[in-house]
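Feature request, filed as a ticket because there's no other form

It would be nice if the structure record came with a short human-readable summary line next to the tokens. Right now we just get the raw output. Example of a typical job, pasted below so the devs can see what we mean:
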Amino acid sequence: MLLLVSVAGALEARAAVAGGADVVDAKDPHRGSLGAVPSRTLRAICDTVGRRRPTSAALGDPADPAGAALAARMARDADVSYVKMGFRGAPSSTQVRRLAAAARGAAGAGLILVAYADWKQVGAPEPACVLDAAVAVRAVGVLIDTVIKGPTLFDYLSWNGVFQWVGLVRRAGLLAAVAGSLGPRELLGAREAGADIVGVRGSACDGGRVGRVSRTRVAVLSAIVSGARPASIGAPV
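Raw output as currently delivered:
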């Protein structure tokens, strides 16, 4: 299982790499669960990481295919390895597929579609719809995340629900990524469920998800992901 750490800028990217993150993800935590960083910031993050780690970029939840394509193209131009796109406000399967196809056409390989475990509360499509779209457009993977931070992914899906979801995604031949206010205990659960990638922000930061990524905290999380069981560093915010 790979550890993805979301960073808001180049300094945090440096801390994430130093702490042992496997994937460095560009995301603005002040703009929600998939907040995109400005293009200049994205380039600075990618330049800082270089070829030492794969990089990814959050694209937000585009409202139309043109917006999805533009966001994906900008990320591709920064030479990221993956792009992540959500679908709040697009509850129908037809809308989801159109948005996904537009992003896939602009981004090429490396598209990860994002499903929300709290989809009922936030006006997003149900996760099964996103998985179907990922298969249809030949995305590389699906991330299950939460929009509402505080409760963890496991509060919305239950432990068995996470296990079942990861199994569905992997049987579809896609990377199964999980995120959503995950702390050390939840990382162990994700690893046991067989997730390919686990994403964190709050538990990697001093001061919660809008704080600053800490090399020390990333190192603790990296140890958990790799199989060690260090003491908890506290619940994510």
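Something like this underneath would help us a lot:
The longest strand covers residues 2-7.
The chain is about 45% helix and 15% strand.
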